[in-house]
Design a protein that fits this description.
The protein is an all-beta fold and about 90 residues long. The protein has a domain at about 10-75. The protein is built from no helices and 5 strands. It has strands at about 10-25, 30-45, 45-50, 55, 60-75. The strands form 2 sheets. The protein has a 3-stranded antiparallel sheet, with no helix packed on it. Strands 3-4 form a two-stranded antiparallel sheet. The chain starts with 11 loop residues before the first strand and ends in a 17-residue tail after the last strand. About 0% of the residues are buried. It comes from Dichanthelium oligosanthes. InterPro entries: NAC-dom, NAC_dom_sf.
């Protein structure tokens, strides 16, 4: 399940770039324990139509200098969509 990347603002959004890469671990170092992926922060581009309404043109959105590396654990002990952690520091 892909986590929500919505910023709650129509002006900006996070977008995954590149391929998801496996994170290996376990006793033999060959077990997939999660994935990682780079995200880029984009600013939306808007055009005003003939009726004066703002319309988002996502193909013209601009990437910013902000980058984030997202790590997703393969831990299946929690239900999909459960974003709560027993330890608040996790």
């Amino acid at each position: 399940m892909r986590p929500k990347r919505d910023t709650g603002d129509d002006e900006v959004y996070w977008k995954g770039v590149g391929l998801e890469k496996w994170i290996l671990g376990g006793a033999d170092g060959k077990e997939v324990i999660g994935t990682k992926r780079w995200l880029t922060f984009f600013e939306n581009f808007y055009q005003v139509d003939a009726m004066g309404k703002r319309k988002r043109v996502r193909s013209k959105s601009k990437p910013t200098k902000w980058r984030m590396e997202e790590f997703i654990s393969s831990n299946t002990s929690r239900a999909a969509g459960d974003d709560t952690a027993p330890d608040p520091m996790l």
